[in-house]
Amino acid sequence: MKKLGFIFFFILSATSLTFAQKKAITLEEIWGGAFRTEGLDEIRSLKNGTQYTVLNFDRAAKTTSVDIYDYASLAKVGTVVNSANLENIPYFTSYEFTADESKVLLATEVESIFRRSSLGIYYIYDVKTGKTIKISEDKIQEPTLSPDNSKVAYVFENNIYIYDISKNSTAMVTKDGVKNKIINGVTDWVYEEEFAFVRAFDWNADGTKIAFLRFDETNVPEFSMDVYGAELYQTQQVFKYPKAGENNAIVSLHMLDVKSSEISKVALPSSYYIPRIKWMNNANMVSVQTLNRHQDNLTLYAVNAKNNKVSVLLDEKDKAYVDVTDNLTFLADDSFIWTSEKDGFNHIYLYNENGKLMNQITKGSWEVTNYYGYDQEEDRVYYQSTEDGSINRSVYSIDSSGKDKRRLTTKNGQNNADFSADFTYFINNFSNVNTPSEYSLHEALTGKRVKEILDNKALLSKLDAYEISPKEFSSIAINGNELNMWMIKPADFDASKKYPLFMFQYSGPGSQSVSNSWMASNDYWYQLLASEGYIVVCVDGRGTGFKGRDFKKVTQKELGKYEVEDQIAAAKKLSDLPYIDAERTGIWGWSYGGFMSTNCILKGNDTFEMAIAVAPVTSWAFYDTIYTERYMQTPQENPSGYDDNSPFNYPELLKGDYLLVHGTGDDNVHVQNTMRMVEALVQANKPFDWAIYPDKNHGIYGGNTRLHLYTKMTNFIKENL
């Protein structure tokens, strides 16, 4: 990375036509989907390693199908299932193969619960006979077939059920599930949101046992949201939401013996949180990860399902917190691969079956950002990393001893791999700032490019008609650190003129907003703003990710302190540039970014003249336990950390123009945050603008909502900056 003043950049369009001949992007086009990139939906590698499946939608026929493609030729060679041939199933929205690929689980009539959870009507499709079986007349959660395909376990109304296919009978396994009290087999709200999983049960390898989690939410405080709808009276959604410092659900691990239906509780030495359970290859052994409340001590246990005896495989501590991932991989002998930041950067480690460290597989001042798997036959570990710069992602392989490392992708940008089941091939999804998604087939051992699968050249051709400015990447020296930055200038930029500066950031722990990747919807909006004469900038400050443990975790117990200092300092330094109008500086952000932009216009009131905050946290005391306490501990333990950076504690600092936006149906960052900020500003007699979107969740979308929101924000920027 080069320092500010020596900027390198990628030019999206090399045309020399004058910009006056080109069209400006419109909000209607952005939110109408005019610039969508094409992709491959739900790729699944088949066990034979030579073929893969893709979910295809035929919009004209209004049908869906799972089609088979050959890796070597990329030709469609067959169809697993097509809804046109199914009775009473006009379409399905997702599919999942059983382990032996003889059956497919089809999801229909799916309705969302929260971010990751849903209810649906599910069918089992027999690939050989073409027959379907409806699992339940009710909408259920997380159906999962047993290894021999004879049974399906699922969750309905907080209880686990098992459907026996041959007998066409269903047995209720747990009987104590009650809404807002006891949950069996699926996670509560905070686990789903912060530990990123919903299904909290799993079959062992021979189908004789099911390990599952039970959540006792009895003492967790309830949160309620009015749902205004279109009727005469509003309704109310009530759910358990543990805010920082409050009671969490009591979580316990249980073992079901499928044949006898007996359930036993596993006594874990420490289990405040149980963020992962995973069966080993030995059908009698299940691994369990636990965390203490501070999340600075993670223990990996092995549990013998025959007698529930517990032993420790690994114990990891960190002065700040230990991340939970899905990277744990058991090899044939139940030795295992694990990722950790314990040497200062996220790397891959190999342990034997008893938890003894065999060796550290990857090393260096860079981060492993994705672990793809291990090919035991070739002794190759496949992973993605930042070895080619923290704003890039490349795919590599290495042997388990940490030798013979190979770079499998060649282009700088975002490389995301999907490997065949036997690691013969991988499909690479590549993009960078110049290139929308390109899908190509590669040999896994060598990385050799075999064939192109899909590109988005049609989108590039379409964009030739528009006024597009290059996104310039650089670094900026702030508070002793080189921070990653991008800048978009007006297409007709004139260095002798002065332009208003509009900054975007997210800034949450471990996040990244400055990356060498293709445009998302907001990037098109920034192009629109550039066409209106604004310089748009994004800076990833301290606390963001992919530059090592210390850079990421410096914000511990002080969320909103160092991140805000960096944004204010960056704005001041950028304002010293001869072409920036120092009297016209704005900032915006969503969620954590809204928390940041609010703090910036208050604590940086001599720097920022305008700010927009969408769905912001205004006090970490209002946010959930798992996320907040990971970085802040509890309000009782760290009162100053909470109070010193809660913007409604100093509303009198507001000088500039401030727009506050929230959805009333936000189950994540509750509208309470905005209401408290509004009340503080009113009592401080500070003028501000705000917008409330009825019944909209944290994403604030649906119908015309996004267009309305971005129209409002665009007008606010043009009127006040």
TrEMBL record:
Pfam family, one: DPPIV_N
InterPro entries, per the entry: AB_hydrolase_fold, Pept_S9_AS, Peptidase_S9_cat, Peptidase_S9B_N, Serine_Prot_S9B/DPPIV
Gene3D superfamilies hit by this protein: alpha/beta hydrolase (3.40.50.1820), Dipeptidylpeptidase IV, N-terminal domain (2.140.10.30)
Domain Dipeptidylpeptidase IV N-terminal: 99-436
Transmembrane parts of this sequence: none
Keywords carried by this UniProt record: Glycoprotein, Hydrolase, Protease, Signal
Residue ranges of domain Peptidase S9 prolyl oligopeptidase catalytic in the record: 526-721
Signal peptide limits: 1-20
Gene Ontology biological process: proteolysis
Domain of life of the native organism: Bacteria
PANTHER family: DIPEPTIDYL PEPTIDASE 9, PROTEASE FAMILY S9B,C DIPEPTIDYL-PEPTIDASE IV-RELATED
Protein name, as recorded: Dipeptidyl-peptidase-4
